[in-house]
Amino acid sequence: MPVADRPPSAPAWRAGGRPAPHGPARFELSQRGHRMAQPRHESGQGKRSLRSAGRGHGRRCTGWMTQIAASETEMNGQGRDNKAKVVVAETGGARDRIWYARGWDGMPLAASLQLLAKNRFAIAPSRLGMALVVLALGPFNSLLATVQRIVYGRRIERTAIRQGPVFILGHWRSGTTLLHELLALDPEHTYPTTYDCFAPSHFLVSASFLPALVKHVTPRRRPMDSMAFGLQRPQEDEFALCNLGVPSPYWMIAFPNRRPQQLEYLTLEGLSLEARRRWQQTFIWFLRCLTCREPKRLVLKSPPHTARLRVLLSLLPDARFIHIVRDPYVLFPSTLTLWKRLFRQQGFQVPREEGLDELVFETLVRMYEAFERDRPLVPPGHLCEVRYERLVAEPAAQLERIYRELDLGPFDRVRPGAERYLAERADYRPNRYEISDHTRQLIRRRWAAYIERYGYGTTVGA
Prior knowledge:
By secondary structure, the protein is an alpha/beta fold. The radius of gyration is 21 Å and the shape is globular. Helix content is 41%, strand content 7%. The two termini are 17 Å apart. It has one domain: P-loop containing nucleotide triphosphate hydrolases (Rossmann fold). It has a 5-stranded parallel beta sheet with strand order 4-5-3-6-7, with helices on both faces.
């Protein structure tokens, strides 16, 4: 992978040398494209069964087709109505059902009240039922959390994280889930499951009985693609932090019309000492809970961690990092689709999409300003970089390279499970995207540093 010898300076990550904003992201841009480009195929990750790892199972699905127009936002403050358009021909994704469990259902009462109160209870009438369910489950979650503290509290406090965790870094939709699932196949690794992350305050005492009940109200596919979804599959630990009451940029999923939210928690910069201490303590407590259950090397994946290298290294100096990058001309429309689907299925509001494209542009810039600034802090041999396109073309070879470069042990113990996993997802049908010529130009301009840094200037998308 082409990687510059030295990361670009921070201002280079902003088109035209724009200075980094000190407040919330500014919403500007987008123009109408008149000629649609040929469809781009997203070679996205597909989840199938993790039976070889003894964790859960998946199901083959048939796709269904929809088309979604991207958000329309004003540009330049000049009064012209200029719009960008992304058309998505989707091959999968869970249809929403009113009885599905939501990502906030595992919150203790104090955490759910905090989330709702911070957003002034700005709940759409059509989503009141969802909010009432979350509040009704709050006392139940609080009770189970108390039981876990009584039963496991001292054991959790004494638990040490002896092996440096493996953190999978990269922007949303860049292939982090595929990497997470592959690394989870290693019998010497452990990881947070979807259930752990959606019930983080009590999973040690409730995992033996609640998942059997909750699985009947859990979708079998993710909302944004045809990858399998399940309570025992690997999941982002950022959701655990949300459900433990820690502020997160993911609060915008619950209240999409009040975005951006808690962007200071993307990088953990600008927080008060007390806020940062609380984040660190909650994060380490959750990792101790996971290690208490299974004392193996943790494999963690959350895109926001890409911007938190400095903090993660201060907490876990022996950590390993795998950083994955992807063609930005696929990354942009895929991320738009992700947020739109999550807002619709998990939000307490009927989402408006104005400014969403600018949020996607700005978040990547903020994320990689922090990442490129702090990557020199990572010790030699603790960071491996992967190109998504090569991972899907030669997954076994790339996974073996990761094991070798990060000294994760013999790859032979993983190879059989990885081969079975890859064979099961061989028929995965990725989403397809069409973006206007002008949207392509915006991506090239706004993400110029990412394109240059990671060698995407000569891709078909460019």
